[in-house]
Amino acid sequence: MSDELISILVLVVVFVIATTRSINMGALSFAAAFGVGELVADFSADHIFAGFPGDLFVVLVGVTYLFALARANGTTDWLVHASIRLVGGRVALIPWVMFAISGVLTAIGAVSPAAVAIVAPLALSFAARYHISPLLMGAMVVHGAQGGGFSPISIYGSIVNGIVDREKLPGNEVTLFLTSLVVNLIIAAVVFVVCGGLKLPRTAVAAGEIRQDNRDGKEGEDGEKGAAVDAPADAESRLTPARIATLAALVALVVAVLAFDLDAGLTSITLAVALSVFWPDHGKKAVNEVTWPTVLLICGVLTYVGVLDEMGTIDYAGKAVSDIGIPLLAALLLCYIGGIVSAFASSVGIMGALIPLAVPFLAQGDIGAVGMIAALAVSATVVDVSPFSTNGALVLANAPDVDRDRFFRQLMVYGGIMVVAVPPVVWLTMVVPGLG
C-alpha cells in the first residue's frame, strides 16, 4: 500500500472516530499528523509543524475573544432585542429577525456555532411561546448563520480565502459570500413557507414579554448558572458604557478590515484587549469563553493537511479524481462528499481538508476555480442543520417544550434533504457555467 493511500485512510479513520466517539477532530488530526509524519513519511517535528496555520489561529482566537466579550457584557443581547423592537415585535417577522441577527453576527466575525448558541435559546423559546414551528425557527437561525458565514472578515470566509491564497488559486471573496447568502436565503424562504410562516399572526408582542431561558453562562439571582433569566425590556435595551464601547469596537473591526485591509485576527485581539483594560471582569470571562475546541479543530485538521501536502497525497488524490475523465462529474462528486461528511462532522474541518484535495483537479483549468470553491463551501455548510452537526445539536438542545425524539427525526430528515438536494443545485448553477 502506498504512503499516499495510507495517509488518506488515516484521514478517513479520523473522521469516523471523531463522529462516533465524540473526540475533537483537531486533537485526532494532530495525533495523525505525528503518526503519519514520523512513521510513514519520516518527517521531523519541525517539518510537521510547518503546516500549522498560525494566521488562522490568530483569526480564530481574536474574533471569538471579541465576541465572547460582547456576549459577557450583554452587547449581543442588546442587538437581539433592538432587532425585535425594530420590527415592532410582529410574530411573523421574528423568524426573519433571527435569520438576520445570526447572519450579521457571523458576517462580522462570530463563529457559526457561537452565533447559533447566542441566538438559538431566545429564538426557540420565542417559538415555543408563540406556537411557531421549532423546525422553522431552528432552520432560520442556522441558515442565517451560514448565510453570513463567508463574508471576507468571517471565520469561514477567512479559512476558505486563506486556503485559496496559499494554494495560489483564483479567488473572489464577494462571489463566495454572495453565493452562500443567496442559497441560504432561498432555502430559508422555502422553509418559511413550508413550515407555516405565512400563517403566523402579524400582531405585535410587547418587548417585555420576551424571555430568554437558560442563557448559557448567565447567573440567576441564586448564583446558579443555567437558571431561567428574565430579560426585561429596560435591562436589555439599556446602552451601558461597556455596550457602547463594544458596538464601536465591532464597527471599528469592520472598517479596519474592509477599508484598511488590516488583519482581522490581530485587529480583533487588539480591540478586545482595549475593552478588557476598562472592563477587566468582562475580559477575564471572555478569555475563558474563546471557542478553544474550534481552534483546536481547525489547527489540527490543517496541520494534518499540511503533512498530506508535503507527502504528495493531495496531488495523488487530485489525480485520482481527475482520472474519472469527466470533469463535471468529478466536481459533482466532490460537492456530495463535502455535504455527506459535513452532515456528520465539522464543516470547518471538512472545508480545510476538501478544498486542498481539489487543488490539482482545479489546476487543470477544466473547471472554474471560483465557482467550484463556492459550490464546495456551500455544500459543506448548508447541511449544518443536521442534528449530528454542532449547529443542529445546539438547536435540538435549546428547544423547550418539544418531543425531542420527534424533533431529532425532523432535523435528521431535513439535514438529509439538504445533503441530497443542495450539491447538484450549486453544481448546476456555479460549476456547470464554468465560472472562473
Describe what this molecule looks like in 3D.
With 436 residues, the chain is mainly alpha-helical. It has one domain. It has helices at 3-21, 25-40, 45-49, 54-72, 75-86, 94-107, 112-129, 134-147, 155-166, 173-194, 233-237, 241-260, 264-278, 280-288, 292-311, 313-322, 327-342, 347-357, 359-363, 369-381, 390-397, 404-431. The longest helix is centred in the last third of the chain and has 28 residues, at 404-431. The chain starts with a helix and ends in a 5-residue tail after the last helix. Pfam families: MatC_N. This is Dicarboxylate carrier MatC N-terminal domain-containing protein.
Summarize the structure in short.
With 436 residues, this protein is mainly α. The protein has one domain (3-431). Helix content is 71%, strand content 0%.
Question: Topology of this protein?
Answer:
Layout: H1 3-21, H2 25-40, H3 45-49, H4 54-72, H5 75-86, H6 94-107, H7 112-129, H8 134-147, H9 155-166, H10 173-194, H11 233-237, H12 241-260, H13 264-278, H14 280-288, H15 292-311, H16 313-322, H17 327-342, H18 347-357, H19 359-363, H20 369-381, H21 390-397, H22 404-431
Helix pairs in contact: 1-2, 1-16, 2-15, 4-9, 4-13, 4-14, 4-15, 5-6, 6-7, 6-8, 7-8, 7-21, 8-10, 9-18, 10-20, 12-13, 13-14, 15-18, 17-18, 17-20, 17-22, 18-20, 20-22
Biased composition (Basic and acidic residues): 211-227
InterPro entries: CitT-rel (IPR030676), MatC_N (IPR009827)
Transmembrane segments: 47-70, 82-101, 107-128, 135-156, 176-198, 247-278, 290-307, 328-355, 367-390, 411-432
